[in-house]
Design brief:
alpha/beta, TIM Barrel, 2 domains, 15 helices, about 15% strand, globular, binds iron/sulfur cluster
Length: about 375
């Protein structure tokens, strides 16, 4: 397992972090879907015994059960031998007092005395404003001074401009968590955000390195590029190695659902190797091939909305593009489970949307194709 210096914290967590948001689940006696605690603990044990020391959870994961399951599974180990990251659910808070109440609820769920890393969760334009309004960061700093939190950071989902504002708002961010993978280097914080953190000496924790599983398998023509180079390496391992080759990445979170995924990830991170120049080129080749499979150049601007019949035009196009690029049947399922009025098939070809589209897309003709591709 690779361990990396974590900024000014003096810590050296494992490069692979266990994301506790996608634990395996099962139906309980009441017919509710709950975490399969036995299987989840088996996975956590295997990860810990194979060198993973960073475990990431949050208030809403599995309806609060993730914190409980993590705390329960880890209580047999010496607390100083692993690190726990938990997050303050900014969208849920209304008053300054809510920060403290929420934090202690989380600590109780974890059954721990402190957390190593505490993040303002999912900062964006709105939640950042709220954090300022209710002085959330000030309260978190007090909890740190009281010894309940060791290190303070934030996780982020918005545009680079907001990211820059947040990074510059506080001089003592000890880390931050962003969404980053080889397909999304220009989205959200992206490469610009990564470089800003490098300049400022802020370590990065990465989420969605495999893009929610989309970079774990492709159509045969895409997979062939990777397999011709190394037939034994998993497709997901390329995405993880790509992210781990970028500075200042210090922890890569993987939300593991099966024991096999834990084993595969540990294999990738044991004797971790950054991509060499040739491998970086292969990833860029794959990225270009995936992008070439985009069906329609819809930017998601929504100028065409609302459609008088209720068709969710950009969402239909996004499912179509993603299905084509990632060869992932979930996008088809998402289409089929949409409300009938929102589906491409509900279009009556009035043409209103086409007069508003700055990309001059043939929306009507393409909606017909969307339905043909995704409805069966
Ligand atoms: S052409 Fe179809 S999608 Fe466009 S506005 Fe009319 S009904 Fe809606
Ligand atoms: S206006 Fe055109 S580019 Fe914008 S969301 Fe609608 S279809 Fe896509």
């Amino acid at each position: 397992m690779e361990y990396r210096e974590f900024g000014k914290t003096g810590l050296k967590p494992s490069l692979l972090g266990f994301g506790c948001m996608r634990f395996p689940t099962k139906l309980n006696e009441e017919g509710n879907r709950v975490i399969d605690r036995e299987e989840a603990e088996k996975m956590l044990d295997y990860a810990y015994k194979n060198g993973v020391t960073y475990f990431d959870t949050a208030y809403p994961y599995h309806g609060g059960e993730s914190e409980v399951v993590l705390g329960n599974a880890m209580k047999k180990y010496d607390r100083s031998t692993f690190l726990v990251a938990d997050k303050l659910p900014m969208w849920k808070l209304e008053r300054t007092e809510d920060v403290r109440d929420t934090f202690f609820t989380q600590l109780k769920r974890l059954n721990m005395d402190y957390v190593d890393f505490y993040l303002l969760h999912a900062l964006n334009r709105n939640t950042f404003q709220k954090a300022k309004d209710i002085k959330a960061l000030e309260e978190v700093i007090k909890l740190k001074e009281e010894g309940f939190i060791k290190h303070i950071g934030f996780s982020f989902h918005d545009d680079y401009e907001i990211f820059e504002q947040i990074v510059n708002y506080y001089d003592n961010w000890e880390f931050c968590q962003i969404q980053y993978n080889y397909m999304d280097t220009d989205d959200q914080a992206g490469d610009k955000g990564r470089e800003l953190c490098l300049d400022k000496g802020i370590p990065l924790v990465i989420m969605e390195p495999i893009k929610g599983g989309n970079l774990a398998s492709f159509s045969p023509d895409v997979e062939e590029i990777f397999k011709n180079y190394d037939k034994d390496a998993s497709i997901a391992s390329w995405a993880l190695r790509y992210v781990g080759s970028k500075e200042p990445v210090r922890v890569i979170l993987s939300g593991m659902t099966t024991f096999e995924q834990v084993v595969d990830n540990i294999n990738t991170f044991n004797n971790f190797k950054k991509l060499n120049d040739k491998e970086e080129k292969l990833v860029q080749e794959v990225k270009a091939l995936i992008k070439s499979k985009v069906k329609i150049g819809c930017t998601g601007c929504e100028y065409c909305m609302p459609c008088p019949k209720g068709v969710k035009i950009p969402y239909n196009f996004s499912l179509w593009n993603n299905y084509s690029m990632y060869n992932n049947k979930n996008f088809k399922k998402n289409y089929q489970s949409m409300e009938e009025s929102a589906k491409a098939s509900a279009c009556i070809k009035c043409g209103k949307c086409e007069t508003l589209c700055p990309q001059h897309l043939k929306i009507r003709d393409n909606l017909v194709l969307v339905n043909e591709d995704l409805s069966k």
